[in-house]
Amino acid sequence: MTHTRIRPFNTGETYPEQHLDNDLCHAVVTSGGRTVWMRGQCPQNLDDAVNIDSHDPAEQTHKVMQNICQLIEEAGGEPGHIVKLVVYITDVRHREAVYRAMGQYIKGVHPVCTGLVVQALARPEWLVEIDATAVIPDAAA
Question: What CA–CA distances, in Å, run from 127 to 19, 40, 63, 75, 119?
Fold first, then answer.
């Protein structure tokens, strides 16, 4: 791992009633490198801003995480360089589906993560938006 992850944990231990499996931590320490600040990613294509044709929170989350991974790769990094995620969902009942889908992309990464339930996102059909920050180490640049 290129960054120091302080107090890593798995959400299966923290939220056993929710059947989640996300590798997170309480803090991430980076040194040097290039920071990639991403706008909140939504369930739409990066190239043409067309929304995916789904109202399923898990499917929307997969698209969001694919966008995040693609942007990090375009910046010269990899998903393992993710240090922070902020998850916005419009319905608390979607939390488990969103976090299960997101967890597939951060297995073994242990970023810090904040989750918020919001009244709405920029488009009514969006159920999830994720804001990500990555730090690409100098050696990977």
Answer: 20, 13, 12, 27, 10
Q: What is the pTM of this model?
A: 0.89
Tell me the C-alpha distance between 63 and 100, whole Å.
13
* pLDDT-derived band at 53, boundaries 50, 70, 90: very high
Domain that holds residue 28: 4-140
Phi then psi for residue 109, to 5 deg, are -90, -45
Q: What is the mean pLDDT of the chain?
A: 93
Query: Cα(79)–Cα(51) distance, rounded to whole angstroms?
Result: 23
CATH number at residue 127: 3.30.1330.40
How many structural domains comprise the chain? 1
pLDDT, average across residues 49-78: 97
